Amino acid sequence: LRQLSDRQREMFLLIKEYVVGTLLVCIRSYALIMSITFIELSVGLTVIGVKNPVPIALLISIFDILPVLGTGGIILEALTRNFTLSFALLAVYLFVTVVRNILEPKIVGTQIGLHPIVTLSSMFVGTQLFGVIGLFGFPIGLSLLRYLNEKGMIHLFHN
Predict the structure, then answer these.
(1) Cα(142)–Cα(39) distance, rounded to whole angstroms?
(2) In 3D, which of 150, 158, 152, 144 has the Cα closest to residue 15?
(3) HEC states along 77-102?
(4) Which of 39, 45, 120, 138 could form a disulfide with 126 if both were Cys (CB 3.0 to 4.6 A apart)?
(5) ∠ at Cα 61 (27, 70), nearest 5°?
(6) What is the pTM of this model?
């Protein structure tokens, strides 16, 4: 830090503080999303008659944060030759997926100060380019640019 000018040091410390705070906000946002998914799955699995729906819903909601394994991967793995159960599981999966795809950009975007469409777009582009790191990094990066612009540290666009 001593190697930096006063302005550079101020910007570095501001960025550090903002990124750490934003990461904590993202963790809180995803905890809320996991809770919503858990409730949806608990109700859905109970309604269709799956044994031990609450522990199963808990495990699925934890794995749901992982893009590849997620709810779909686990529920689709459970599909058997029981076509009635398979159809019911598919319906629960579709419901959870639709709700998550609507709520995730809204919750995360609101928490980090971005419009839901910008959040969704940045999550998609980030995931395509850098995987899980991009999923979180791109929205946080855009939020940081917006914050630095508002503070007058950089000048990208007018408020």
Answers:
(1) 31
(2) 144
(3) HCCCCCHHHHHHHHHHHHHHHHHHHH
(4) 138
(5) 95
(6) 0.73
